[in-house]
């Protein structure tokens, strides 16, 4: 027994063991498959950017042409590197000529395999070196400017206009924010391409584009110099372009990415095979770039009851942890998610929230846990809402959370205004300052309500994980074991973008990332693979 809650370490070990087997089982399946998004990401990392005359992104044009020619199973890198060698062109020039119709990639005479691998390795090393340089920039700025204390104060901007987002992001930094997240335009996760350039129109948020990333990063750097601390930038690495957005974020020095292994499956009905393949490559990129990921377990409690479904949040945290570890992501970059979502009218609900938060902290001691505010039970009563957010903030500082996404008292009515954000930051700063070391002074009654609740949730999570281990994650998702949402392994959006790797498949960036992250290769075969299909 250890920690304030005296959780049973044997139960925690059982949970991790089951989650590790679940993740390994999935990894052996997805290791034999690729997606159009992974292949577009390879091209972006090689420097392919821009659009054709019709405004279609060049990575999409090249991948679509290779699909038409039935050549994508060899990997986009095979053909683009081959053409680069043959014609003495850069990968971007190859893509431009392909888009113009003057170059047919699959008709180019094939170079020797050794030459192809050597050039691919050179391009991969160059692309990853550029990402490593951006990571060093972050580290140097933090060393020079310093940063806010944990829990980091995390706020969102969502105007739809990148230039207005910059104004609001800078304002938030001046008010005390440590992380500014730019909410994506509604529906972007279901678009199978990344828009190009700056955007000034969006619904409920702003489109995630590389140029928007660059502009926002520049704006927050300016604000950081002004306030004397580093301001982190967050965006959304999820949906049908998950690995592409990870690559763009890495190249533009984003610091935090929403990057859940299961969110797109459960809440956007994206095909489970597509999502699980894409998340693996995206997390390798995030891991190498030093980007903190945030997972989305908080969303489970918007579709399921926070009291009855608490164990599913913990089970998903264990699964997300293992997928992240397999991708080379250290614990210090795992912002595993959970939320303060009990019904405020529930007697002793605060004690259950405290139990859940403390339990997560003790089980994942090195993770910068991302704690989400009350949303499901927020109403138009802004005074009650402000108190709910204050209680959420108290739990955050009491249990040592890593990232505190601040609640806004008006969020049940409209997109919060700048002054609403200011009040939320003042609320959190007041409580965090006045209760900074309260957690050091608090102990829980042995066998009391908080301890019993935490143990109950852990025990149920262990039982659930071992059941998922026995049937496989794909079957568990089909049965609706997570978030009370059922999904089909051959349904959902994006399955047509999944394909089997050919014998000559080549992805130089995965090879180089695995080498730099110290990862081994993947095993073949899986106990639960039957029934997987690709188009």
Describe it.
The protein is an alpha/beta fold and 535 residues long. It has 2 domains: 33-124, no CATH class; 146-453, D-Lysine 5,6-aminomutase alpha subunit (TIM Barrel), CATH 3.20.20.440. It has 20 helices and 11 strands. The strands form 2 sheets. A 9-stranded parallel β-sheet has the order 7-6-5-4-3-2-10-9-8. A two-stranded antiparallel sheet has the order 1-11. Helix 13 (310-326) packs across helix 18. The chain is globular, with a radius of gyration of 23 Å. Pfam families: Lys-AminoMut_A. This is Beta-lysine 5,6-aminomutase alpha subunit /D-lysine 5,6-aminomutase alpha subunit. Residues 5-509 form the D-Lysine 5,6-aminomutase alpha subunit domain. It comes from Melghirimyces profundicolus. GO terms for molecular function: catalytic activity; cobalamin binding.
